[in-house]
Here is the input.
Amino acid sequence: MADAKAEAIRGEVRRIILEEFLPGADAGELTDATPLITGGILDSLGTVRLVAALEEQYGIEIEAHEASVTHFNSVADIVKLVQAKLASKA
Amino acid sequence: MSGAVEGAAASPRRGVRPLGAALAVAGGAAFLGSVLADLVPGHGTGFGLARAAAALLGLTAGALGVDLASAAGAARAREWSERVRGVTAAAAVRFAAVTGELVLVALVMRAFQIETPAFYQLLVPLIVFGFVVHHLLPARHRLSFFVALSVAGVVLVLGWLNAAWLLALVLAVVGLAHLPVRFNLRVALVVAAAVVLALLRAHPQRAPWSLAIWPVLGSILMFRLIVYLYDLRHAQGPVDPRFTLAYFLMLPNVVFPLFPVVDYATFQRTWYEREPIATYQRGLDWILRGVVHLLLYRLIYQYGSIGPTEVGSLAALLRYLLATFGLYLRVSGDFHLIVGLLHLFGFGLPETHHRFYLASSFTDFWRRINIYWKDFMMKVVFYPVYFRLRKRGDAIALVVGTLIVFAITWVTHSYQWFWILGRWLLSWTDGLFWAILALLLVVNSLLERRTTRRRLPGSASATLRGAALLAVRTAATFSVICLLWSLWGSPTPGDYLDLFRVPRPRPAEIAMVLGVLVAIGAAGVIADRRERRLGAAGRAAGGALGFGPRAALTAAGFAALWLVAAPWALTPLGPGAQRAMRELRFPELSRRDLAAMQRGYYENLVNVSIQNGELWKLYAQRPTEGADIWSSGVLVERNDFLAREMRPLFGIFQRGRSFRTNRWGMRDQDYAQLPPADTYRIALLGQSYVAGDGVSDGETFEALAEDRLNHRTGRHPHVEILNFAVGSYSVPQQLALLDRVFTFRPSAVYLVGGPGDPGRAILHLVQQLRRGVDPPWPALKALLDRAGVDRTMRENAAIARLRPYADSVLSWVYDQIVAECRLRGVRPVWIYLAIPEPQQDTGVGAAMAAQARAAGFATLDWEDVYAGHDLKTLQASAWDFHPNAEGHRLIADRFYRDLTGDQELAVP
Here is the structure.
């Protein structure tokens, strides 16, 4: 159940990133570990846009200090953050 | 059976623990012995490299001994033995390869004298030693060892006392952040401590510690403490004090006051995040890149950069703009070097700069240049502001956040120089630069925001149209930033605008500008395509090559640099190439800066610190007070063309030297106005070098020579040498002084000239004209009119106009001095005196002497007066090129020889 939920979040995060930040790129290029910030895919403006998209999608609130490499450098990190936010909301 | 197993396990434990205890005692003894040997009087005051290494080895052995002597000793011993057995031949070769590269790094640093002697002579060997020990240590000891190595570096560079003060201050301030009180109170305490330190920084003589530690203390705390507090506020786990100490004391900081703002969370997160050897290799790659940047910077500084007054054509303007922007390579070079060195200890930090000359937009430029600063601003300013305001709309949050980031960046640049230099450096052009950049970035960000779909980095040049657009955008961004950068370096906006008053460009000049733009655009496209090939993972890993090729390439790069630096390597290419390599290897002031410094041009300019690394290095060493005798009150302003003179009967003791004037306002002993009978009187005219800036009373060359002349055996008339020299006096001022000189009835006038004379002459004419004082001679006034110079013009623009007339001014003044002397039967003599600075152009004296001879002077050439001596040992200080007491003694010897020699100039 938890895995399915994580998988759903993962799919949604990947969709947003592929649509917004990697248009035209092969979906296979974006793995769970692809470095988003350190690899130059997400900059500060991109990060705040992704934050807004996630907040809207999941009804969560992400704080300023969380918009960092620790939470946004990979799909896996983002999924972990969203899961934690959803868990604390519940 | 069970008992046998227990016995087998207990047996090694019993053997390991005594061994551990012995190792701990021996290591502790070695550590204490090395430290105490250094502290005991008679063993020198510095913490020598060998003692530092011995102390570190002792400490390491002690720590390992404690490990083995502990209850877990046997397990640790097994762990080590398994680790040693697990080392493959391939891993050993890879480690040997990076160690070999690091040895080459040390050789190159020394060969090219990279940055300061404290760095390439002390820290780099310590780093080579530390790297090997650090890697071989068990992982849990590495961080502690890095802290110990960093502390050893501080002691090595600053000495025990200064190091003790520095460490105590850092620990005290950082300790406040960990007091068991509410976070806000801790922040308030840290701020209070910062205010106290700032007050002491403004008045460093009130602090009980040496001036030397301020730049290091400032660079350690001024930004990192903010990041640290921010991360402490949001930290989720307990704080590891080893990381805290490593973060604040990190090794190369002690010799790099201009240090990247390393992010604490990143510092922790990236420690051995990747495979160790790959991390080390990336560090070595970046060190090589840093060295290349620094050498390119030296090339630009020595051969490319020109002064604003030399901009008289579009080609010169292009050169000025490119060189000014190019000088930033000094910062990117240092930062690559620093972060590369940190990689050698496992800190896999991100890149600090990334092809910033090839940015394709202003936001892209901001993302690529000084990335650590951008990240710092994003983290502690932009995101907090943006997240607070975003409910009012994305655009408002973006605009306000960006503007606040740039306002803070502007102020903190000055704040940074305050901590490092002890003075604020705020200027209009500085503010204007940041304001324009902020506006460009806001507009660019809003435009990017409207583009809903973003592009993968490296994809812009995928099509021909995309490549062309990218080339245009890259060239345009480069052009605008280049123009902005020069604004940053200009004293006033008016001076900046004056740069662009160039004659109508020739077609060749326009072609040159277009060529540069096309080259930049093409380079942008090539770089973008390369990024595309790398992909995100490749970019994050720092390249697509595997360890072997990367190690081979980097080693080859270092080896090539080392070989090129060898004295014999350039012999076949002739003296020109050898001289160029000498200038590349031994960083000195460029001729332009040397000339400017000689005429005091930089005294009031803020951009000494902002953009000119070499001058900054000199000025950073200057004491904030009492550095300049001419600011001590000895000078009195005048309203006429002479502009200033020395106050009579003035006395001061400054920087360990006395400086007194007699009742006539000369830096000399007292003399009657009229020469006594049987006296040969010489009036000596010159500037600070002659007045004896840099030596005590009685140590000036004229005083020494006069004394010797009056102690000659045989019957000679008494000799008096009256020193009329005043700091920064130009040749036209010497002419204006002559009427007063002749009231002392000299038998001869000796005018001492130097390499800065033409520049100083036109500077004085311009400065007087701008304050409404015309030259008192119609001929010179006419020359100013002919040059099109008037009092409304800004200084740099007027100097640029007058520069072609400098020789005419000098010749005309020489003619007048000779004519005035001959009218009174006074012998006119002209002397060329070189300054003790290696970069001094040779041959300048001969050309100036020819001019003086043509006017009718008898001439003496003292260009080689310091021959056979290390010029650095003859300078008053590292930042003051006036001759010291030994330099004056050499000049006095020459003066005496010339005055007593068998030639036309001999005094009776």
